[in-house]
C-alpha cells in the first residue's frame, strides 16, 4: 500500500502504525511507515508523533522513542504515558518514575502504566504503594496490580484484592485470577473460580475457556472438559486456533484420543501447534504409526513446516510403540532433511526408545556421543531401563551421575535406594536415607487424582483422611484377594524398608493409585474407563496390578 498510488493520509498512517507491534516483520513495516511519514511532511503532526512513540515503546526501541519524545513540541498525557511504558519495557524503572513524578496532569492510564512498570520488575512494594495512592482507580488499575501478584504466584494477595473489587470486577479480572491459579498449579482452585464466575452471572470469554481446559488437562477431568466443550458450542464462542488447540490437548491428556482427533478434524482453522498437539498426543498414547501418518498428512498438505515439537511427538510415538528403526530414521532426518537441530528433548526420546527395546549399551553410547550435556531426564530413562533389565552395575553408575547433576532431587536417592533394596543391601539403603536427611532432601509424595461427577478427588500413599477410607480399605483387601486368584504376586522391590515380605506387600497395596482406583470402582457405574492422574511415574507393581484390575472388572 505504501508503494502504490493509494492516498496515505495521517488517519491511514496512524492505523497502519498501530497494527505494527509484536513481530520482527511488523517492526520493519513500522520503520517503513515512519520513513513515509517523514517524506510526506507529517513529522511534526502531534497525533502521528504520539503513534510513533507508542509503536517504538511497545517494540522496546528506547532510543527511537526517546528521540521522538524529545522532538515533540507539545507533550500531552498520552505521550508521557507512552514514554513511561517505553522506559518500563527496557527496564529503566527510575527514568519511568522520574517522568511520572514530573507530570503536572495524570490520567488513570498514567497510574496504571507506572504500576505495570513496577510489576514487570517485580517491585510489588512500590507497585502497591502507588496503587494505594492512586486517586483515580478504575478496573484497569485493579486488574494491573492483581495481574502483577498472579504472575509471581502471590495468590493470597491477588485474591484479597479480587474480593475487595466486589461488583467492579470484569471478565478480565476473573480471567487473570484463574490464570494465576493455573500458573501456581492450583488447578482445582481455577475450576472453583469458574464456578463462582457462573454463580455471579459473569459471561466467560474464549480466554476463560482456554484456562479451564488447561486445568482439566492437568487434572485429567474429562467430564468437566466435555462440559466445557459443550458450553463453547452452545454459547457460540469463537473456536480459534488457541481455543481449538487447548481442546485437543485436553482430550489427549485426559486419555480420550478419539475425542481429541474428532475435535481436531472439526477445527475451522489449524496451525502448526494444532498439528503438533495431535502428533504429540498420538505418540503419548502409544499410537506411533498414527503419529507418523499425521506427520505425513501435515507434510503432504504443505500445511506447515515441522518444528522441534513435531519431532518430539514423532520420536515419542516411535518410543511408546517400539518402532526402533523408524525412530532412528526420523532422528537422522530431522537435521539432515528438515533442518531441525536436535535438542535435549529429542535425545531424551531416542534414549527412551532404545531403553524400552532393551538396547542399553546403544543408549549409553548415544548419551556419551551427545553434542550437548545430558540432563537428568536422559540419564533417568537409562536408569529405569537398568532396573527393569536388572543391570545393577550400570544402574549404580548412572544413579551416581544423576546425584552429581541434581543432588536436591529426592527421586534420584529413591532410585538408588531401590537398587540397593532389590539386592537386600539394607545398609546402603540406610546410608541413602542418612544422606537425604543430612542434605535436607525430601521425596515428593505420590499423589493420584480421579474425577467423579465433575469433582476431583486426590489421594496420597497410605491416605486415611478420605470420608470413605474404611470402605476403600475393605475393597482394597477384596481386590487383592481376587488378583491373587489370577496369579498376581506383588513385586516389592520398590519397598525401601528391611521388613518382612508380608509387610512389604501390605505397604505396596496402599499406593495412591491403588486407593484412587478402588474409590473409582466403588463410586462409578457401568463399564466405562476409570482415569487416574498421578504426579509421579507409576511403579512397576502398580502398573501390572492395574492391568489385572482392568481385566478383573472388564474395564478399559
Automatic annotation (TrEMBL):
Which InterPro entries does this one have?
A: DYW_dom, E_motif, PPR_At4g14850-like_plant, PPR_rpt, TPR-like_helical_dom_sf
Annotated GO biological processes are: RNA modification
Record has Hydrolase as a keyword: no
What keywords sit in the KW lines?
Repeat
PPR repeat start and end residues: 107-137, 138-168, 170-204, 271-305
Record keyword Lyase present? no
Q: Which Pfam families match?
A: DYW_deaminase (PF14432), E_motif (PF20431), PPR (PF01535), PPR_2 (PF13041)
The record places domain DYW at 487-554
Single GO MF descriptor: RNA binding
**What family is this protein classified in?**
Belongs to the PPR family. PCMP-H subfamily.
**Official protein name in the record:** DYW domain-containing protein
